[in-house]
Design brief:
Structural class: alpha/beta
CATH architecture of one domain: 3-Layer(aba) Sandwich
Strand order of the largest sheet: 2-3-4-7-5-8-9-12-13-14
Shape: globular
CATH superfamily of one domain: Alpha/Beta hydrolase fold, catalytic domain
CATH class of one domain: Alpha Beta
Helix content: 40-55%
Number of helices: 20
Distance between the termini: 31 Å
CATH topology of one domain: Rossmann fold
Number of strands: 14
């Protein structure tokens, strides 16, 4: 699964997905027990309180406070070790009724950094809430996982290239090499990463905040985390919102097809917008523009062009860049200019910024070396978070959450059929997403708890927001997940574009805030109209 982050996060931090992100495989499984009364004594974790202080980072807003909670490494054996989780909050300015906890997606997105730089979207909620986010286990400052050089050395194996498709056995061997690198660089947290344990951490955070119920706003992957929490702790659910709803049941191979189709639909929307402008570098006809994109991708795959950073830009790098840009309609003008610079001047810099999320330019992708101990469970400094942490955590969490493990023989036998399905879903993004079928090869079986147990919930009403033009989480996942969760799930149909609705639609924003602040749920099936400004 590619990273599924909110548009705010995509603009700043969603780096190294696509070919690089798909090169990651971790090791180990999460603890899958779901009831506190079946576990050893966790009182010392549930009795803690957070000590809030000013955030130490120089660019952190003055009104942002930072803290931490401590959780067991292994909930079944809490004496085995502990982890510190980084938290941040904006304090309530009005009559406080508790906290609302945010997760911005990924998986692998660090919540503290996102809240620091994207907190303006949530200031209305501070009328009644402390607005809180956190770095989940294995993410950001919270014992960050890393694959070291393995991620970058083996990225080509997962890039959907013709070589990979002709010789999958070699690609699978490279995936195993990457898995070894992940295990070597990630420390003891890796076997205990995943949404089942992150949900249990979320309940410890709820108690440490002093809240009897969890009020929660999750985006993209954050909807998976919220749904798992509701299944594990139904009596602790307060006002819960899921925006950009993830699937709970589809295997990763099917998610890849859905993602390719969603990206193709988003590209068509962008092309229809672009060709209306004389400045569009792809022409003034949508069909011709689509063919020009395909030609450009093929050309760069056959003959990559040098970049400003002594590397090369391939067609698959271009596909990765376009896929990132399509997560938000706000990026369309920048994408248009980046394509113009590439087509008309051979300038790769603007496309590279999309391809890497502004974090690591093509041709200069070595991760930051780890300088701290990996096994003590304490928070690391921001400058010590490995550059590959987001994709490393993304793959470790997704594989921990998925129980399917096709054999090398099954993968090789089905690759041709799957390639046809992916390329039918998208002639541009299909091959790029096909590597998804390889990404968990060699790992132990992930948990089956999410697929089998997160259903038919007995909770207060939950608000699920689905966006019709979402390139990452198709609208049908919203309705399917709502049906699976049961009658407490209320669907808001956002007839707009982009990944998630809260930041892009005034209507969605107001509806979500009304629920979180006042408990006002719209009738299920209510809609927000398109806010297309042309």
């Amino acid at each position: 699964m590619l990273a599924k982050l909110s548009p705010r996060h995509m603009a700043r931090r969603c780096a190294l997905t696509g070919a690089v992100g798909l090169a990651l495989v971790g090791a180990g499984l999460p603890t899958t027990a779901s009831a506190r009364d079946a576990e050893p004594d966790l009182t010392r974790f549930y009795d803690q309180r957070i000590r809030w202080t000013a955030c130490k980072e120089a660019d952190a807003p003055e009104d942002l406070q930072c803290g931490k909670v401590t959780v067991p490494l292994d909930y079944a054996r809490p004496g085995k070790g502990t982890l510190d989780l980084a938290l941040a909050r904006y304090r309530a300015t009005g009559d406080k009724r508790g906290s609302v906890v945010l997760n911005f997606g990924g998986p692998g997105g660090p919540g503290v950094v996102e809240l620091a730089h994207g907190g303006d979207d949530f200031m209305d909620l501070t009328d009644n809430y402390d607005v809180v986010s956190f770095d989940p286990r294995g993410v950001g400052r919270s014992s960050p996982v890393s694959c070291g050089d393995g991620l970058f050395q083996n990225a080509a194996a997962m890039g959907g290239t013709d070589e990979t498709l002709r010789d999958p056995q070699t690609a699978l061997r490279q995936v195993r090499t990457a898995a070894d690198a992940c295990a070597e660089n990630s420390g003891p947290v890796l076997p205990y990463i995943g949404t089942v344990n992150a949900s249990r951490d979320l309940d410890v955070i709820r108690e440490a905040l002093g809240d009897k119920k969890l009020n929660y706003l999750g985006f993209s992957y954050g909807t998976r985390l919220g749904a798992v929490y509701a299944a594990q702790f139904p009596d602790k659910v307060g006002r819960l919102v899921l925006d950009g709803v993830d699937t709970l049941t589809e295997p990763l191979s099917e998610q890849g097809v859905a993602g390719a189709a969603g990206q193709q639909a988003a590209l068509e929307d962008f092309l229809r917008w672009c060709v209306r402008h004389a400045s569009c570098p792809l022409g003034q006809d949508t069909r011709a523009a689509r063919e020009e994109v395909q030609r450009l991708v093929r050309s760069l795959d056959e003959a990559p062009v040098p970049t400003a950073f002594s590397g090369e830009l391939t067609g698959q790098d271009l596909v990765a860049a376009i896929s990132q840009a399509l997560y938000s309609k706000d990026h369309w003008p920048t994408l248009e200019r980046a394509l113009a610079a590439l087509v008309e001047e051979g300038d790769t810099r603007h496309i590279e910024a999309f391809a890497t999320g502004g974090m690591a330019p093509a041709g200069h992708r070595e991760p930051r070396p780890r300088t701290t101990r990996t096994g003590d469970g304490t928070l690391v400094d921001y400058e010590e978070v490995p550059l590959d942490n987001l994709p490393a955590a993304l793959m470790a969490i997704n594989c921990a959450d998925d129980p399917d493990r096709p054999t090398a023989e099954q993968i090789t036998r089905n690759l041709g059929r799957l390639r046809a399905a992916y390329e039918e879903a998208s002639p541009i993004f299909g091959r790029h997403r096909l590597a998804q079928v390889l990404m968990c090869y060699g790992r132990p079986k992930g948990t089956d708890y999410i697929r089998d147990e997160v259903k038919d919930l007995d909770t207060p009403g939950m608000l699920l927001v689905g966006t019709r033009g979402d390139p990452a989480t198709p609208y049908r996942w919203t309705t399917q997940t709502a049906k699976r969760l049961g009658p407490s799930a209320v669907v808001l149909d956002n007839k707009g574009e982009g990944h998630t609705g809260y930041a892009a639609s005034t209507c969605v924003h107001r509806t979500v805030d009304a629920f979180l602040l006042y408990g006002t749920l719209p009738p299920s099936g209510s809609s927000c109209g398109s806010e297309d400004d042309g």
